[in-house]
Each structure stands twice: as structure tokens, then as C-alpha cells.
Amino acid sequence: MTGSLLERDVADALAERIGTCRRVDGGWGYRSKCESFAEPTALCAIAMSLCGRAEPAMAGCRWLAKLQRDDGGVPISPAMTEPCWPTALAVWAWQVTDARAFDANIAVGCAYLLRTVGKPFPKDRRMFGHDTTLRGWTWTSETHSWVEPTSYSIIALSRAGFANHPRVLEGLRLLRDRELSGGGWNYGNTRVFDSMLRSFPMCTGVALTALATAGVGDSHSPTCDNPVRELASASSPLSLSWSVIGLRSWGRLPDAAEASLTVQAERVIRGAPAHYAAMILIASATDRAFKKLVQTSNEPVSLDAVGRASFEL
pLDDT tens digits for 81-107? Predict the structure, then answer.
């Protein structure tokens, strides 16, 4: 597959939907008439960049740059200076859209991520199934580490050349530890008391993308049977899109992906939030554009450095 997973008219309609929802300040909100927020703006900028619409992508990236704090963190909106979990998504958007133009923003954003840590606490295997001492990244400061913000940070930092940095290596150890025994990931807890928890398609896709972008070697590539099965249960645009992105990051594309993306695209075109349309565009990008999304110049990460792991799903 070299072309988009969507027919041209469908992809164009998604891009038009994103363009229609853009705010006058250059950003995007969670709803069409909502003020601009960092997460949807970053995702929409990435999507517009991948489909060749440079002007709105650059406008979104400039909005994110204006939002960035002096310490490098990117808060969720101009009205809320905390939390700064969208920093990694903003860095990713700058990297994909124009790394040279936003080099300074990327540098201070990565510095912020490298000094940001989740809050560990003593292990209690009776209550939790994961290692609570590992420090990844958080949704908000002074809280525990979770799979999605950790994965976003690994993606942004790996693309910036930090895949073998101790913080990223610890983040990879965390992802290994939070992997569920039956395969895949959820928000970041494997067990509560005696109850084993199930995986979520979106979280699994985000984690797979992080592992691939970090450069986990081909000899340790994941078996993707469980994520392929999960794809059938991914009934929302975000879950489906992240599932496809994660699997494509490892060179796997289920036969059902194109049809499923088309069904979701047709629903989104009729009036869903812009970042839903953005995620479908990102997931369905051409091979050339998709490589731009997950490209990395890192040497393969040594799994000996993160603890021997198969990452089998």
C-alpha cells in the first residue's frame, strides 16, 4: 500500500471539515464553536501537514508556539496554564510540520519533558499489578505515570534524538511493565486486587507507536495478533485511528482497516469534532506521509538497557 487508505474525495472532505472548524486564532477546539485547545490543535496540525495543507498546519503550530510557556511546557489552553501534558503532542506537531521553523520550541519542549517525572510510590502487589516505582509521564503534575502521556513523550523525545536517554529508557520499562498479560495496554493498570483488567484499543495503539518510534529493534518487534483482534472492537474514531497507527508503525495493516476507516470518516464528515477527522486522516495517510509521522534517526534501542522484554501482544 502506497496511497491513502481512503478514497480521495473522502480524504478531501475530512480535510475540509478540519478547515471549517479552525478558529480565527489558528487553533482548533474540541468542538466547532469551542475555544482553541492544545490537543486538538496539535492533532489537526499534524493531519493537515501530512495531507499537504501547509498553511493551516503552520497556523496551528504557530498557535501552539504562542501558547508555550517560558519553561517549555504547553498547557491545555490559554485560559489554563496547567496541566502541561499536551507538550509532547505540540512537539510532535512541530516536528512533523516544520522542525527547522520550530527548532527553538522543540528544544525547550523536550527539555521540559526530560525534567518532568511521574510520582512513584511504594510497591503493593496485593493491590496493583504494575511496578509503581517506575517514572514515566503524567496527565497532571505530582501524580502517577500513565500509558498515554508516557507514550506521547517517548514519541516526541525519540524523534528529537533522545531514544537512549535515561528518561526515555525508563518510560520504555514502564510500557513493558504495564503491558497486560493477555496482550495490549489500557490506561496503565494491569490488575486491581484480584481483578485482571482488559486492554483498550486506543491505549494499545499509542503504546505501539511509541515503541516503534523509539526504535525498538526488529528482532524484538511485537506480535500484533491481539491489536488486530482489538481493531474489530474499536468503534470510535479515536480508538480506530490509534489502533491503525500503532499497527502500521510495525508494518501491520489488517484487511479491515480501510473499510473501517471509511465508515468512520463518513460519520465524522457529517459533523464530528475536527480532531476526530484529523485522527482518521493521520491513520489513513500515504506510506510516504506516514513515515514522516513516525520517522526516527535513532540507533535501535537496546532492550538490555530497558530490561529484557518481548513486547509480545
Answer: 999 999 999 999 999 999 999 999 999
Q: And the C-alpha cell for 193? A: 486486587
Contact 112, 157 (CB under 8 A): no
Is position 41 within any domain? yes
Residues 16-23, mean pLDDT to the nearest whole number? 96
Domain that includes residue 246, residue range: 8-118+132-295
Please answer whether residues 210 and 219 qualify as being in contact, where contact means their C-beta atoms are separated by less than 8 angstroms.
Answer: no
- Answer yes or no: is 95 within a domain: yes
The set of residues, in sequence order, having a beta carbon less than 8 Å from that of 176 and lying 6+ positions away, is: 306, 307, 309, 311
Give the pLDDT score at 303.
Answer: 52
CATH of the domain at 271: 1.50.10.20
How far apart CA 165 and CA 134 sit, in angstroms, is: 15
| CA 37/CA 241 separation, integer angstroms | 20
Supply the pLDDT for residue 308: 38
* Cα 46 to Cα 97: distance, rounded to the nearest angstrom: 7
pLDDT per residue as tens digits for the range 181-223: 878 899 988 777 767 778 888 999 999 999 999 987 554 455 4
Nearest Cα to Cα of residue 89 among 123, 60, 122, 53: 60
> Global pTM?
0.92
Q: Are strands 195-196 and 191-192 parallel, antiparallel or unpaired?
A: antiparallel
DSSP run (H or E) holding 192: strand 191-192
Residue 286 to residues 14, 56, 75, 282, Cα–Cα distance (Å): 15, 19, 31, 9
- The count of domains in the chain is 1
Provide long-range contacts, Cβ within 8 A and 24+ apart, for 253-261: 253/1, 254/228, 256/231, 256/232, 257/5, 257/231, 258/5, 258/6, 258/284, 260/231, 260/234, 261/5, 261/6
Q: Hey, is 309 helix, strand or coil? A: coil
CA distances for 190 relative to 65, 92, 131, angstroms? 36, 28, 10
Q: For the stretch 182-206, what's the b/e string if a residue is b when 16 or more beta carbons lie within 10 angstroms of its beta carbon?
A: ebbbbebbbeeeeeebebbbbbbbb
